[in-house]
Structure of Ig-like domain-containing protein:
Amino acid sequence: MLHESISISVSVTLQPDWSQIFRGEKITVRCEIQGGGDTEWDYEWKTPQSTSHQTHVNYWTLSVSESSSGNYMCRGRNRRDSYSSTQWSKTITLTVSVSNRVVVTLNPNWSEIYHGEMITVRCEIQGGDTEWEYEWETTSSIKPSNQNEFRISSASSSHSGNYRCKGRKKNAQHETTGLSDAVTLRVSDTKSNQISSSVLTVSPSWLSPGASVSLRCEVEHPSAGWRFYWYKTVPKLSDRLYRYELLPGSDSGTEEDSYMVHGQTHTAGYVCRAGRGEPVFYTEHSKPTFVWSGASLTVSPDRVQHFTSDSVSLSCEGNSTEWRVRRFPEDSYLSLCSDWGTMTGSTCNISGLNSSAVYWCESGSGQFTNSVNITGHNDDIILVSPVLPVTEGTSVTLGCKLRRENVVSNVFFYQNDKLIQNDTRVELIISAVLKSDQGFYRCEVQTDSLIRTLTSPQSWMAVKCEYD
């Protein structure tokens, strides 16, 4: 039977297809046949080591040496008809360097290392079982020893620089590898214990029992390598601190900067922090963030804005007999009612508001109320608006209050800086609140005894759905 040549596209490929292959590296030679339909093939090769090499699969993997250099060709033979074959492919040339590939690696391989972190610079010579001595070139002010690893237990700016290495055979000192490519190590002046800020956001902040809560943690200096730790906050009424309990699945941290709490049934506070490295360096814990469901904090008088001379009462309501009130001012630190007011039972009484702050109640059983924003003002006029979010469909009344006299006429109300009422009514009444009514409100008045117009600060009025 005559040999039959079939016109089919045949090619040889190398994987990886690097321009330079080093001694000892592994490479896969593959025969690609296109246009053969469902024909089953055996493969015949021409290699530098032999005139004929046959395989049942279309590839083979070899650990290359100098003798692997040369031309490679292949063709396919029909398994059902050994006399039927493709044409030979074009040749592909493999060039193997007589040296070994040398690579410098950083562990951990982060774009920025913080002052005080641990890192290892390693010289890796790939291929063969030769015993090596190692030589380093670096632009840093601290020189590595002639070992394959340079362990930095506490990184500093003096370790910053480019690192290159090469190997010298122990049994043949005149034989060396080439120099590796340079790897750059950057050590920040920021100390690991100064990476202090984590910010936790919670969505939603108002929820129905059984709903899911989404937590997201952000680091002040974002970079690679962070793992995130998630906690539930439990108040310790014996002192001013919280006890943090790790949430399920975050004992070793999570790679994702977000975390879902499913089936939330009661009020809770959450905290996060981030950590990285070995040993682990942590950020400080984030400020506690709360979700509300059940227990509540009410404010009397019920408004966001107050004059600095006003007395205000904050009352905690819920399934607990032991409450305390906390606040976090814009320009100060987390503190208790006993620092700026008087706690009587479950009510905190404040004789004057000197600053704006967020307030909430917490109990020893781990309950937290909703948080409220209350502002103190030295102005002659304030807006009267509800502290808590208003439910869609309900009625709400906004007003203006002067420090020394009553408002009688000429009241103007604005929503998001747009004038929405300018008639003789002294109150803004929304009979059935819609989501579109949510926004920033302020008022302006002109009394009989005043010629100039007075403008209140603005406050946010939140609107929630009926089932929130």
Remarks:
- Helices lie at 337-340.
- Confidence is low (pLDDT under 50) at residues 1-5.
- The chain has one helix and 46 strands.
- The longest helix spans residues 337-340.
